[in-house]
Amino acid sequence: MAGARRWPARVGLMTVTDTEIDILAPRPREAAMLRVAGALTRAHALALASPGGGHGSVADILDATGARAAPGMAVRLATGLDQPGADFGSAAAALMRKCPLEVLLVQDAVETAPPRGRFAVRIAGRLSRGRFGAPASTDLLATHAIPARIVHAGHSPDWQAA
């Protein structure tokens, strides 16, 4: 049928929080999406309950995903890429040999349209002055040939496959 939306045959989810990895095995159809929505809601609540926690790097998450994902499974990682980790490039390459990877890069207004001027910030008890600049995350993803789409924080993302 022309114009019909094509849904994946099966949908699963892996969420990584400061305290746990939750995996929902792939299941078919609408019931799977209800389970995914519930798991995302729980993961979001956990993240809000422990802001600024000591989570691992994105490289650690990619390694964990690669160890659990079936070959050929499409992986979409939603992240701000705040802590890519020293092994980010090699972890991403290993996962991409097994599964297609796309990053949904979450950015806020300061990242997408940095304010002009010099600003003072206190980091680890020291006062520093500087300017906001473009984030390096898009360059990092391009360097490793990782497909990415920017998702603006506070806006509804376009979840439709490209």
What's this entry about, in short?
This protein has 162 residues and is an alpha/beta fold.
Structural features, described:
With 162 residues, the chain is α/β, with parallel strands linked by helices. 33% of the residues lie in helices and 26% in strands. The strands form 3 sheets. Strands 3-4-7 form a 3-stranded parallel β-sheet. Helix 2 (58-68) packs parallel to helix 3 (88-98). It starts with 9 loop residues before the first strand and ends in a 10-residue tail after the last strand. The mean pLDDT is 81.
Query: What value does the average pLDDT take?
Result: 81
Gyration radius, in Å: 18 Å
**What does the oligomeric state look like here?**
single chain
Please count the beta strands (DSSP E, at least 2 residues each).
7
Q: What's the helix-strand series? A: EEHHEHEHEEHE
N/C terminus separation:
19 Å
Shape: globular
Main beta sheet, described?
Answer: 3 strands, parallel
- What is the number of helical segments per DSSP (H or I, 4+ residues)? 5
Strand order of the largest sheet: 3-4-7
Quickly give the structural class: alpha/beta
Give the tags:
162 residues; alpha/beta; 3-stranded parallel sheet; two-stranded antiparallel ribbon; 5 helices; 33% helix
List the helices and strands and how they pair.
Blueprint: E1 10-16, E2 21-28, H1 29-49, H2 58-68, E3 75-79, H3 88-98, E4 101-107, H4 109-112, E5 119-123, E6 126-130, H5 137-143, E7 148-152
Parallel strand pairs: 3-4, 4-7
Antiparallel strand pairs: 1-2, 5-6
Helix pairs in contact: 2-3
